[in-house]
């Protein structure tokens, strides 16, 4: 994609990756973009770069605006390789006078690239860089989602270059939120939060509070992935506030895997019991990727887990899901368990242990059955669903 001037003297120069399908365990079925921004004042500054494979495309975009040798500074908001991978090539070409980042970011870049000859210029919280006609203020965003993360605020233009924050993994030719269908946009933003920021929600809360107290105005939120928010930036800001608080809806996600269909039958009965005033999502792990499941979990009040047993343990897809979910630390959930077994009746115990580790409030005794559920067992599953529904709705 060609570069685009998003405001006077401020250009989006990043690249679209139409083919990315996995981002270390996150299913990016619609690709992504690696956004980078070029800002021209009396000095010219490049904010972040792109994944190493796309260095050539980034440079081509920059050359449509300016001879790269005339870029004065590079700001690194985030050291992760999808934004820093092209740095060695870009620095070699541009030979910037300053590589501007925090001490923590310098340490991270050194641990990646081992280049103490780079012209590091260390900035701190609140520092202001005057580039002639534009001033840039830096704010820490530690643990959103790496310890060295920062954001850059273009004060005159009221643009926040926010690194990963407010991003989406979605490859599009459109660049702005108002150019795409909002349902898909918010789904992708929700998925991004659930899969990347959920475990650092306390840091997100602190970050939002910090910037809100400064009464900064934001005309544009420009993340390093996906669409740029210009129509109503406060809307995605509010969403982040809600997700960071762990706010939930009357919604239950049933996550299950089944060996011979018994656990699937039980899941259907649990869902039937939940019916009435509760949004129900039934996620068969054979068909639903872990990163789409966790997207549903983000705003759900209840998570109900079902598995068959195999070799004395949970089915591999459920073990994978639990490993992923534990890392993402969903909060404020109630939980329940069910499943089938062959000769060792431990399925509910194993699932409850996982939910206890995640501090879920467990509802009911759980339901298990040997091999295939009979009508009595399916009725117990129905009752388990009703019990969870009552807890969700506080009736
Ligand atoms: Fe898009 Fe944390 O990198």
Write the layout of secondary structure elements.
Blueprint (H helix, E strand, L loop, with lengths): L3 E4 L2 E3 L2 E3 L4 E2 L2 E2 L4 E3 L2 E4 L3 E4 L7 H9 L9 E3 L5 H4 L2 H8 L3 E4 L1 H11 L6 E3 L5 E3 L4 E6 L9 E5 L4 E3 L20 H16 L3 H13 L6 E3 L10 H12 L4 E8 L5 H13 L4 E6 L5 H9 L1 E11 L2 E2 L1 H13 L5 E8 L5 H11 L3 E2 L4 E4 L4 H19 L2
Parallel strand pairs: 8-9, 9-10, 10-11, 15-16, 17-18, 17-19, 19-21, 21-22, 21-23
Antiparallel strand pairs: 1-2, 2-7, 3-6, 4-5, 7-8, 12-13, 13-14, 14-15, 19-20
Helix pairs in contact: 5-7, 5-9, 6-7, 8-12
The chain binds MU-OXO-diiron.
The site of MU-OXO-diiron has 8 residues, from α2.
Shape: elongated
Strand order of the largest sheet: 1-2-7-8-9-10-11
CATH architecture classification of the largest domain: 4-Layer Sandwich
Report how far the terminal alpha carbons are from each other: 54 Å
What key phrases describe this protein's structure?
single chain; Metallo-beta-lactamase, Chain A; Rossmann fold; 35% helix
Describe this structure in words.
With 395 residues, the chain is an alpha/beta fold. It has two domains: 4-244, Metallo-beta-lactamase, Chain A, CATH 3.60.15; 249-394, Rossmann fold. The protein contains twelve helices and 23 strands. It has helices at 55-63, 81-84, 87-94, 103-113, 182-197, 201-213, 233-244, 262-274, 290-298, 316-328, 347-357, 375-393, and strands at residues 4-7, 10-12, 15-17, 22-23, 26-27, 32-34, 37-40, 44-47, 73-75, 98-101, 120-122, 128-130, 135-140, 150-154, 159-161, 220-222, 249-256, 279-284, 300-310, 313-314, 334-341, 361-362, 367-370. Strands 1-2-7-8-9-10-11 form a seven-stranded mixed β-sheet. Strands 17, 18, 19, 20, 21, 22 and 23 form a seven-stranded mixed β-sheet that branches. A hairpin with a 4-residue loop joins strand 14 and strand 15 (159-161). Helix 5 packs across helix 9 (290-298). The longest helix has 19 residues, at 375-393. It is elongated. The termini are far apart. The relative contact order is 0.10. The mean pLDDT is 98. Residues 78, 80, 82-83, 145, 164, 224-225 line the site of MU-OXO-diiron.
């Amino acid at each position: 994609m060609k570069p685009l001037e998003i405001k006077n003297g401020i250009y989006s120069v990043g690249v679209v990756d139409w083919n990315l399908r996995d981002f270390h365990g996150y299913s990016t079925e619609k690709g992504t973009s690696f956004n980078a921004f070029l800002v021209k004042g009396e000095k010219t500054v490049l904010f972040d770069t792109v994944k190493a494979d796309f260095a050539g495309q980034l440079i081509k975009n920059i050359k449509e605006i300016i001879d790269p040798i005339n870029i004065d500074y590079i700001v690194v908001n985030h050291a992760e390789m999808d934004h820093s991978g092209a740095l060695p090539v870009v620095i070699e070409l541009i030979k910037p006078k300053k590589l501007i980042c925090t001490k923590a970011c310098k340490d991270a870049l050194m641990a990646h690239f081992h280049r103490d000859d780079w012209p590091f210029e260390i900035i701190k919280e609140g520092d202001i860089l005057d580039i002639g006609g534009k001033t840039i203020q830096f704010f820490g965003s530690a643990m959103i989602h790496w310890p060295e993360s920062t954001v850059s605020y273009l004060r005159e233009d009221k643009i926040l270059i926010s690194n990963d924050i407010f991003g989406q993994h979605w490859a599009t030719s459109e660049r702005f939120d108002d150019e795409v269908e909002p349902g898909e946009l918010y789904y992708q933003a929700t998925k991004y939060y659930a899969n990347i920021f959920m475990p650092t929600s306390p840091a997100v809360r602190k970050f939002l509070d910090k910037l809100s107290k400064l009464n900064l105005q934001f005309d544009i939120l420009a993340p390093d992935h996906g669409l740029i928010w210009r129509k109503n930036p406060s809307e995605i800001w509010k969403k982040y506030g809600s997700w960071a608080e762990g706010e939930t809806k009357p919604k239950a996600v049933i996550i299950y895997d089944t060996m011979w269909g018994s656990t699937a039958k039980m899941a259907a009965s649990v869902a039937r019991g939940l019916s009435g005033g509760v949004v129900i999502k039934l996620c068969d792990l054979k068909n639903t990727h872990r990163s789409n499941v966790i997207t549903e979990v983000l705003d759900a009040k209840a998570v109900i887990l079902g598995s068959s047993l195999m070799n004395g343990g949970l089915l591999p897809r459920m073990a994978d899901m639990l490993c992923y979910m534990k890392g993402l630390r969903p909060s404020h959930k109630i939980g329940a368990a069910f499943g089938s077994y062959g000769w060792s009746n431990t399925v509910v115990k194993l699932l409850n242990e996982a939910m206890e580790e995640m501090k879920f409030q467990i509802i009911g005794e759980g339901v298990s059955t040997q091999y295939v559920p009979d009508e009595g067992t399916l009725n117990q599953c129905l009752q388990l669903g009703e019990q969870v529904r009552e807890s969700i709705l506080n009736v």
